[in-house]
Amino acid sequence: MPEGLNPIEAGKQLHEHGETLAKKPDDSHDHGEDGSRHSRILQICEAGLLALVTITAAWAGYSAARWGTESRVQIAQSSTLRALATRSDLTALSQRNFDASTFNAWFIAFTLNSPQKEAIAERRFRPQFRVAFNAWLATNPLHNRNAPPGPTYMPQYKLAAQAKATALDNAADAKFVVGNHAGQVGDNYVRITVFLAAVLFLVGIGSSFKLHTIRYALVTFGSALLIVSIVLIVQQPGLPA
Questions:
Q1: What is the DSSP code (8-state) at residue 148?
Q2: By three-state DSSP, how is residue 166 classified?
C-alpha cells in the first residue's frame, strides 16, 4: 500500500478545523458587519475546500493502491513466464544435444560403411529429427558442396520447445512492460497526494491569520493546487481491470 494522504486524517482535520472556527470569538464588534460576513465566507470556502481535498485524496489513494497491486501482479506473472521460458529452453537444448548424439552415431556408422549400425542409429532418431535428416539426405551431401553441414541446419529442423520458449519470453517481456507502466501510474497518484497534503497545510495554517486577505490568498492558492491535482488525475488512465 503506497504511502499518501490519509482520507481519514483529512476528515479529522476538517472536523477539527470546523470546531476551531466555531470556538473563535466573533470579531464583528471589532470589524463590523463586513468582517463577520468575510469570516463566514472564509469558513464556507475553507470547509468546502477541505471536503473536496478529502474526496480527491480518497480517490487518489485508492487508485494508487489499485495500480500498485496491478504492477506487482504483472511483474510476478512476468517472472513466472520467464521461469517457464527457461525450462522450455533447457528442454530444447536437451533435445538438440540428443539429436546431435544420434546423428554422430549414424555418421560414424556411415564412415565405417556399416549399414546395420546405420539402421540402429536411425531407429534412435526422434520423429521430428527424422524429417530434417531425410531432407538433408535429399540434398546429396556426399557430392553437393553447397549442402548444409547437417540436418540441424535444415529449415525442416524445428524444436517445439524452442518455439515455446521464445513465445514465453515475448509474453514475459510484455507483462514486464505492463507492470512497469502500472508502477509509474501508481507513483503518479502518490505524487498527486503530495499536492493534496499541501492544500491541507495551507488551509490549516490559514485559520491562524487574522487578516482576511491572507486567508483568501491561501484558499485561492490551495484551490489552484486542488485544480492541478484533479487535472493530473484526469490525465491518468482508468483503473486497471
A1: -
A2: helix
